[in-house]
């Protein structure tokens, strides 16, 4: 007989996980997702990707402001297990107890590393070379339950937040396909996390999105990758916000003309068809794709090709914070 499953999730990565549920083994009786949110200048209500999946597949969808509000409804459905991925709320213990511990979370890190809601961004911010997916037990404490199985992938230098979400979504889908029934049948037993190795990935704040050019070039590139393409890491010139959506490290072998004056971190020093070069505390970056406040994104090479004037040599991103580069 099929096991009755309720899924909790909200963003696109959770839709991929839904695709991994084998409907020959599980009956997807309901989907729980966050309430519709207002987006854009017109502040129009927009459903989550998971809600759109539920509607398109004629699956019952619930959108409580607080998940405890639907306790009685979940209880009446008598699920055998709960499966979650990036839902956006903690599941109360009272609900977890309805399935006698068979509440499984698809977490986008190799636990105990990066407990919390932003593991993908932190892996990029910290310049990690690998990351992965953990299928784990849900308990009251966030991401602290035992894990059943983990698989890893490499993080490429070309990866950004969008591409890493995509890769981990596919990995999570494959793992749910391979392991979920075995976990439910207790063919795979849980393993305790090593509490000595715990690290956290708390919620991303708007302050973290502002690029710190007083760091090394590698750290600046990691910051850009962690928030690309959305929300986008940014710098400010002449009180205007510019999102830097794509950039690369400048090699020591690359030669270009520049003045011998003392530079400040965040200073623009050279333009060409590919983009423009910016100083950091250690090394330089080349900006390849940029979005001016209120405008569409463009190739940074347009500043050279089309002789755009809003950013020029000698201008400094985040000038009030810029340190002199010695």
Automatic annotation (TrEMBL):
Residues binding (6S)-5,6,7,8-tetrahydrofolate, per UniProt: 109-112
Membrane spanning stretches: none
Pfam families given in the database record: Formyl_trans_C, Formyl_trans_N
Domain of life: Bacteria
Limits of the Formyl transferase N-terminal domain: 4-176
Entry's family note: Belongs to the Fmt family.
Protein name: Methionyl-tRNA formyltransferase
Species whose genome carries this gene: Spiroplasma sabaudiense Ar-1343
Gene name of this polypeptide: fmt
């Amino acid at each position: 007989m099929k096991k009755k499953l309720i899924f909790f999730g909200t963003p696109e990565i959770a839709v991929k996980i839904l695709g991994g549920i084998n409907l020959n083994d599980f009956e997807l009786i309901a989907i729980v997702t966050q309430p519709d949110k207002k987006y854009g200048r017109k502040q129009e209500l927009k459903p989550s990707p998971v809600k759109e999946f539920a509607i398109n597949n004629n699956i019952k969808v619930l959108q409580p402001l607080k998940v405890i509000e639907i306790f009685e409804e979940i209880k009446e459905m008598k699920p055998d297990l709960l499966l979650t991925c990036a839902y956006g709320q903690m599941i109360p213990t009272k609900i977890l107890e309805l399935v006698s511990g068979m509440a499984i979370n698809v977490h986008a890190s190799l636990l105990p590393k990066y407990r919390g809601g932003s593991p993908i961004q932190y892996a990029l911010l910290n310049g990690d070379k690998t990351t992965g997916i953990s299928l784990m037990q849900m308990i009251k404490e966030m991401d602290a339950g035992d894990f059943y199985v983990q698989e890893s992938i490499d993080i490429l230098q070309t990866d950004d937040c969008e591409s890493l979400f995509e890769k981990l979504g596919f990995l999570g889908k494959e793992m749910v396909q391979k392991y979920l029934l075995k976990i439910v049948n207790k063919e795979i037993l849980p393993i305790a996390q090593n509490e000595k190795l715990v690290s956290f990935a708390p919620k991303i704040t708007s302050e973290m999105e502002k690029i710190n050019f007083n760091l090394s070039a590698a750290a600046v590139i990691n910051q850009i990758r962690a928030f690309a393409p959305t929300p986008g890491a940014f710098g400010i010139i002449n009180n205007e916000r510019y999102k830097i959506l794509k950039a690369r490290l400048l090699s020591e072998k690359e030669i270009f003309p520049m003045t011998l004056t003392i530079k400040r971190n965040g200073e623009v020093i050279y333009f060409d068809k590919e983009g423009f070069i910016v100083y950091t505390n250690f090394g330089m970056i080349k900006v390849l794709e940029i979005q001016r406040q209120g405008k569409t994104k463009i190739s940074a090479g347009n500043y050279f090709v089309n002789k755009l004037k809003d950013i020029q040599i000698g201008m400094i991103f985040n000038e009030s914070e810029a340190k002199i580069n010695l």
